[in-house]
Amino acid sequence: MEALIPFTTSGSLVDLVDKKVLVILRDGRKIIGVFRSYDQFANFLMESVVERLYHKMEYADRDIGILLVRGENVVAVGEIDLIAEDLIPLREISVENIMTRITEDNTKRDKDQIIKENVLREYGFVSEGREGDAY
């Protein structure tokens, strides 16, 4: 059967139909669900979809349901090993808790970036998008 399907982007998806997959999107989101169907543009339909949010060794799942994914937004897609999935040492927490922790980390990162830019400015460097050390 595989010899009849040319190895193209969409042709290589045939083995994933009706399997649980992890999809990493261009914007960084990670979604998990059952791969149901696809077309010649590698657009695909998933059901029982959750968006998985990670923070260090913790995670939370946000229910989405049914999702149609445009092929151009996919960075990677792969089958999940159902046995190995249970062996991952992550602790599940609530979506509210993980969103709070992610927001705190992003706020700290933004503050650190401002401090870094100020220090670099003192030594003659400037932030991106301005005149200075660029040619």
Automatic annotation (TrEMBL):
Keyword set, alphabetical order: Cytoplasm, mRNA processing, Ribonucleoprotein, RNA-binding
The residues the entry assigns to the signal sequence are none
Subcellular locations according to the entry: Cytoplasm; Cytoplasm, P-body
How does this polypeptide assemble, per the annotation?
A: Component of the heptameric LSM1-LSM7 complex that forms a seven-membered ring structure with a donut shape.
Judging by the UniProt lineage, the source's domain of life is: Eukaryota
Q: What does this protein do?
A: Component of the cytoplasmic LSM1-LSM7 complex which is involved in mRNA degradation.
| TM segment ranges | none
Give every Sm domain span: 8-83
> What organism, scientifically named, is this protein from?
Tremella mesenterica
The entry assigns this protein to a family as follows:
Belongs to the snRNP Sm proteins family.
User: Mind telling me what this protein is named?
Assistant: U6 snRNA-associated Sm-like protein LSm1
- GO annotation, biological process: deadenylation-dependent decapping of nuclear-transcribed mRNA; mRNA processing
Q: Which CDD domains match?
A: LSm1
Q: Name one GO molecular function term.
A: mRNA binding
One Gene Ontology cellular component term attached to this UniProt record is: ribonucleoprotein complex
